[in-house]
What does this fold into?
Amino acid sequence: MKLAVFDFDSTLMDGETIDFFAQKMGIETQVAAITHRAMSGELDFFESLQQRVGLLKGLDYETVLEVSQNLPMMRGAKETIAQLKAVGYKVVCLSGGFRTATSHAQKLLGFDAEFANTLHHKEGKLTGLVGGEMMFDSSKGEMVKRLQALLGVSQESTLVVGDGANDRSMFPFAAKRVAFCAKPILKKEANIIIDEKDLRLILEHI
It folds into this structure.
């Protein structure tokens, strides 16, 4: 068995989920600036996530669901996942974003499992609080280790794909480390670099 692990925002999906939410509140510039600094490694991911979700307080949860179900998937995502599964990979999505988005994307793209964070909501509106499995800079790497142990997959048989600083923790556990349209901080630690928005280019390295 082999394991392929993908980030979600700006990897399987073309954009940042939280930025799409922020657009609905007219605060996209403010939130996007924090997102950019976090993905560039300038801010602690946990702190930046709390800051950004805090700014979403009061957003209707119905709007969250509507946005989450209409996100633009990255070119080649569905085909790439299908091909990886056809050659024996288990495909997992690890996201520092939100399950409202990743659980819907799983239905569209066909990956095997997803782990992300949950936006707390009460009386139909976001409370500005968040919790979940992917809250910290180290979360994705720790989950890759757990998945390898659970599935009996070696580092040599593991592929990881991401674009930002919070994807770095996955890289020590994978033989194939893909920086996809990535920030410089991630490219420095990758051994496969793809600068075109087409996930099918990964298949040339399999």
In short: Residues 2-205 form a domain with the Rossmann fold fold (CATH 3.40.50.1000). The mean pLDDT is 97. The first helix runs from residue 17 to 25.
